[in-house]
Amino acid sequence: MNEDSVMIGLYKFLFWERVVRMINIYEEQIGDIPVLQVVQSKQMNEALPTVVYYHGFRGEKDSSLTIAYKLAKEGFRVVLPDSNLHGKRQESITESELELSFWDIVIKNIEELDEIKLYLEKEQLLLSGRIGVGGTSMGGITTFAALKKYDWIKVGTALMGTPKISEFAEILIEEYNKFHEEKITDNVRSEVVDKLMEFDLSKAPGHLQNRPLLIWHGEEDKIVPPEHSVSFYDEVKHQYGREEFLQLIIEKGRGHHISRLSIEEAVNWFKKYL
Questions:
Q1: What is the distance, to the nearest Å, from the Cα of residue 41 to the centroid of all Cα atoms in its chain?
Q2: Domain boundaries, the chain
Q3: Of these four, 33, 87, 186, 251, which has the most CB atoms within 10 Å of its CB?
Q4: Mind listing the pLDDT tens digit for each residue in 30-48?
């Protein structure tokens, strides 16, 4: 390693050490929801544009601290919730039970998002209703579904999610039945899909109402189909009065893992539109 490389590494370390010092992370409970709030120390009690960012399946709120730091550095308040049965809300259940709870967790995320918004408003921490929602994997799925449910969301970023949740539910059920002796019955399958129709953005894309939406997906993703993102984008892009409000990024050579590019693009999207 040459001297220039050492100096560059030192400058990066000192830069991020300074960022960490100026940004405050604090834990709190909003109702039954454990959250982290990430915000610049000097803005801790100010009303700010706010991003609620959801982690992925089997993750926890701490998983999203990298993007939260970057957003806080730009002047946003960031709220990172623990999804039900994750993080501080973990319970002693089997892996199969957790898998079968997937869609209940997503729906609970959506319901609790309204509770988080009401809390921010009550505490006068939300600036002029400027609230954005983002997430990774299961969090990206939550983002798409929340955009269907709530018209007060101003901006969305969905990384590795799918807007076609009823179709994805069919895929997950088929995969589950391949590897488990106790199968999900056709009746249960129908109940799950019917329940998800209320939150399926692909069935009612008009609910987007021209709101800025960034969709990022790895081209090699084998967990959540990138084809869902591509086909949805093709279906809805003509509905947007301003094409720049809808962006799709398919990153080549990337699987089901977020990248530096995805984080940078998400941060820039919120900076531009929230």
A1: 24
A2: 25-273
A3: 33
A4: 999 999 999 999 999 999 9
